[in-house]
Amino acid sequence: MITRYNSPQDAVPHEENLLILTKSGGCYGQDFTDIVQEIRDGIHGDKLLIQEYFHSLDNLVDRDKLIQNSVWIIHWQECLENEPYPHLKHYLETRSYPNEGEIILCVNGSDKAETVGSRYPRVSVAPSKEYLVAYALGHLNTANPACSGGTKKVIEWNNEVCDELGVP
Amino acid sequence: MEAQRTIQRLIDHITFGHGIHLFLQVLLLEFASVFLTFQFSSSLLLQISNPNFFIGVYAATSVIFLGILIMFTAKMRKRTFSPPLQQVRRLAISILGYIAASGVVITFGYLLLILATTGRTGIDRLDYVFSVMLTTLFAALLAVGYHARVVDKQPDRETITGTVTAWQDSLAWVNEDDRSHAKQDAYDEFTDRMNDLSELLSNAKTVHGRQLRRDFEAWRDDFETHSELSKETIIKGQGENKNERLEQEHQKLETIQRRLRIIAGEQK
After folding, report:
1. Chain A residues close to B179, C-beta within 8 Å
2. pLDDT, position B122
């Protein structure tokens, strides 16, 4: 289970999980696995590793698993547009995710993205793959032990999750 | 290299990973004993007043030696870490290997000598049955010799099955509630059982056993670099959408588990 980081050494190397909520496994005409590879290729240094984590849409009630991912990538059309998953909508509306995390909604089409952006002002809305990669890298290259101050951010995120889960 | 590994895998059927030296040592001693008998005996032909009775005695004794051979060979393979050696078919190969090796000694050291000195007319059914008895005796001697080594240097069956079962059971830490203390305890238990299994597999001496140890250690090295969530994903497996990297590690885990289940006798 997730363990608390007590010193900067504990956070190096650090593996981050990218939560991907999707039915089809892709967006913008590409598999999420390929998009994550592009993100992976853009990460500075070798102290941060990332893994995509496909959580089952049938088990969104399991928030304890979701919050262990610092980046949430959500396919808006598949998971939010018609509000098929009330738990997910609730998490976003009540900001029930770690403060240090990054939420990215993948929306096909710029016009639609603007509408979604006004509805969810506190999260990033990516109208294209390039935006998605840029948003993800913006977070991952900030909360990255290879960057100045990045280790502190990683420790803060990790320990915030530990606090949430009651890990001593 | 591959040919060498194939030969080594075949030799494992006899040596169970404990080197060819004992095998050669025993075979040479058997040759020596047969030749010495020839040297100091006036005739190698058996001269017995009641041959039919002794044919029965030798045949029965052969069956006893064969039973000893089967028993010790069957026990030895259960203490190796080679999944293929657990198969009954492989047990048959091991037994035939021992019999063939001893048969060569008897054929060249005894039967051919008789034929060379007396001609075909001098040898009869009693000599053949006696040869069979000597063959099974020498084969059993070889098996007992290797069994002694296996007993000395390999963990016992209970330790093997107990360690494998405990490790497999400890994988259930992933099912504990994230917020519970039980999860931390179960994870610590899993870590301990992982160390136990690693130590157990360090005893592997056969080709397949050493391969299993290497696969397990490589899998473990990769596994330990991951976050806890990725570790859970590797153990549990994934649904329709998959992280291919973690899926590969999950499949490696499954092949390791399958081999360990065979070794522990939980799966054929």
Report:
1. 64, 165-166
2. 65
